[in-house]
From TrEMBL:
Protein's name according to its UniProt entry: CHAT domain-containing protein
Provenance organism: Candidatus Methanogaster sp. ANME-2c ERB4
Record SUPFAM superfamilies: TPR-like
InterPro entries: TPR-like_helical_dom_sf (IPR011990)
Length: 646
């Protein structure tokens, strides 16, 4: 048995060696630089450092310059890849990079010139990623720092200190010591990129402490860290004056610096400069647009805010819709919601309520409409099965791992996780959907679904205040009622729900029963606050219009507010809908329900507020004679859901 296994290993290694040399031969014989780079890229993504070993050995043994030139080109490609450059559209490319990084650290020992780049690749992974081995990466950085110090490599020392600061690998005190060590060495560094990267990381580190102290109310400490940051920023400006490339890279941090210095106009101009410099080539200018758009609204420059935000909505939309894993969906959803909500407020402040309503609605139902369109596409079932598998993998549910690659033909690919392989298949299967499927309904489309004494109330919250659009039958380009309550910001209204700093509000009364909060008192505070902010002006308008039935489309956490209990709204028949799209769809349905309801609450055991909502819904429907089936907590399994009565 041992002999057979050994022979099998030798056979695989021989095939491995043969295929690597095919790549080398193909690259050497390439007619164009693009073709040669393609072969090198395929070899790198398949064999990693093994390809480099073979190529270096061939270059060492041969006296032909072409092999050494190819080896140098491969090394440049390897370094750029380890620093984060994407070479393909593969969904598993990032993990292939990590496999190579781990192999590099484990296989090349402490005297490893690639150790810093490999460690950086690992630390760039999101928190919670199974391959984000912080201890391994941290030790690799420390080893590299020691190696550079022993060899008198000043630039290597500063670069490694830069990474230790960037990834917060050390304690605050030790990090400040490392920063001082780097500052003592920086005058001996001639490479402008290394100098700039070091200064930028220090600047970012100081800005972080300034923001933290500002949020904690420690104004004195905020000023101290801000001044430290300003000193580094001035050094950057002095050293890079006239160099547009460096200045572009510094603009992000300078914009943040001016923001914490409470100079929004200067911050907005910095973000505008980023947009102008990166709009027409590769770069994340959409992030700068998100920041500038918000600042323009702060400054009351609404038209500029619209001009900045509208072009980047499709970018944030795609990032949101194509996200699969929970964390990615949440993060992309937050950014998308910020962009479309701020855009809605900018339009509302300009009196452009048609656009305001469309953008506000987009943030409430877009992903639901997209998933519906996916289900109805010709690959819908395949896509949903892949999403189901990805969701299970993201929650740690084990799945059978069927290898689709062999070690000889794809050394790195054989080590790729099942999750990355499923993501790659998901990317290939996802169809391109018509943008018409994702357009938010207009005011007139909403109004057409209403009867004579009915209205839809759309709410939006932001730092700018609260916006409300009241749509009645016959409305076309303008809602019958439109309000902007700038005194009632999102933060101020949130205080009614949370209880502010005391954390004794309705949210905690329901979500944290162990706190023993007086629920009635918390509910009274919530109702009193929303009655003053929204109930009184809204109720007065609805009565004036002769409305009796109201469908409220809340925004964010306002779905937890019992609007029907507000004194000024108790006389209305109040319904809640998650979105205008959902409201219209419900009116178009002709299917008659036979007075049965299935209520699911807290299926993931971390949604305590849903229990209160389920109880209220169940009591309400039961009072009207409905047959209620409830699946609560552990009983809310997928099997139970599908087997529940229709």
């Amino acid at each position: 048995m041992t002999s057979n296994k050994s022979n099998q290993t030798i056979d695989v290694d021989e095939v491995d060696h043969h295929l690597i040399h095919i790549y080398i031969k193909s690259a050497i014989e390439s007619q164009t630089e693009e073709e040669r780079k393609q072969y090198l890229t395929e070899a790198l993504l398949s064999y990693g450092i093994r390809f480099g070993y073979s190529l270096n050995e061939l270059a060492r043994m041969s006296d032909q310059k072409k092999y050494q030139d190819l080896s140098d080109e491969y090394l440049d490609l390897l370094v750029s890849w380890l620093t984060g450059k994407r070479l393909t559209e593969r969904a598993d490319e990032d993990e292939r990079r990590i496999v190579l990084a781990i192999e590099s650290i484990e296989g090349m020992g402490e005297d490893n010139s690639l150790g810093r780049l490999a460690a950086s690749s690992i630390l760039k992974l999101p928190l919670g990623h199974p391959r984000r081995d912080v201890d391994m990466a941290h030790q690799a950085l420390l080893n590299n720092l020691g190696r550079c110090s022993d060899h008198g490599d000043i630039e290597g020392q500063v670069s490694t200190i830069t990474d230790l600061v960037k990834y917060k690998s050390e304690s605050k005190d030790r990090t400040l010591e490392l920063i001082q060590e780097g500052q003592n060495l920086i005058d001996q560094v001639s490479d402008p990129d290394i100098r700039r990267n070091f200064q930028i990381q220090i600047l970012g580190y100081y800005i972080q402490f300034a923001i933290t102290n500002r949020d904690d109310g420690n104004i004195q400490a905020q000023k101290q860290w801000t001044m430290k940051a300003k000193t580094i920023y001035d050094q950057l400006i002095t050293e890079n004056q006239g160099n547009s490339h460096y200045m572009d890279k510094n603009l992000y941090l300078s914009a943040l610096l001016f923001e914490i210095m409470e100079e929004p106009a200067k911050a907005a101009e910095r973000f505008a400069s980023i947009i102008n410099s990166e709009k027409h080539h590769e770069g994340e200018y959409h992030i700068a647009a998100m920041h500038e758009g918000r600042l323009r609204i702060v400054l009351g420059e609404y038209q500029r805010g619209i001009e900045v935000l509208e072009p980047v909505v499709p970018i944030f939309e795609e990032l949101y819709l194509t996200a699969v894993e929970d964390t990615a969906v949440r993060d992309a959803g937050k950014d998308f919601s910020k962009v479309v909500t701020n855009l809605a407020f900018a339009h509302a402040c300009m009196g452009q309520w048609q656009e305001a309503v469309r953008n506000l609605e987009m943030g409430k139902s877009l992903r639901l409409r997209y998933r519906k369109a996916l289900r109805e596409s010709h690959r819908g079932q395949t896509i949903l099965e892949l999403e189901k598998k990805l969701y299970a993998l993201s929650r740690g549910v084990s799945q059978e791992s069927e290898r689709t690659t062999d070690r000889a033909s794809d050394w790195l690919g054989e080590q790729i996780s099942l999750q990355s392989r499923v993501l790659e298949e998901y990317r290939k299967q996802r169809p391109v959907l018509s943008s018409k499927l994702l357009i938010s309904p207009s005011i007139s489309e909403i109004a057409t679904s209403l009867v004579q004494d009915e209205a839809v109330v759309m709410m939006g919250l932001s730092f700018k205040g609260t916006m409300i659009a009241v749509i009645c039958p016959g409305d076309e380009n303008m809602p019958s009622g439109h309000f902007l309550f700038e005194d009632w910001t999102k933060g101020k209204l949130a205080g009614f729900l949370t209880g502010g700093e005391d954390e004794d509000g309705w949210l905690f009364a329901n979500g944290a029963p162990e706190l023993m909060i007086d629920r009635q008192q918390a509910l009274d505070k919530l109702i009193d606050g929303f009655e003053e902010a929204i109930g009184k002006p809204l109720g007065s308008f609805l009565k004036h219009k002769g409305v009796h039935r109201v469908t409220i489309i809340p925004h964010l956490w306002t779905r937890l507010v019992p609007f029907w209990a507000l004194p000024s709204l108790v006389d209305f028949d109040i319904l809640i809908s998650p979105s205008a799209t959902n409201f219209i769809t419900s009116r178009q349905s002709v299917k008659v329900l036979h007075h049965k309801a299935l209520i699911v609450a807290d299926p993931t055991l971390d949604l305590p507020v849903s229990l209160a909502e389920a109880e209220a819904s169940g009591q309400y429907l039961a009072s009207m004679g409905w047959d209620i089936t409830q699946l609560i907590k552990e009983n809310a399994t997928e099997e139970a859901l599908y087997s529940a009565p229709p």
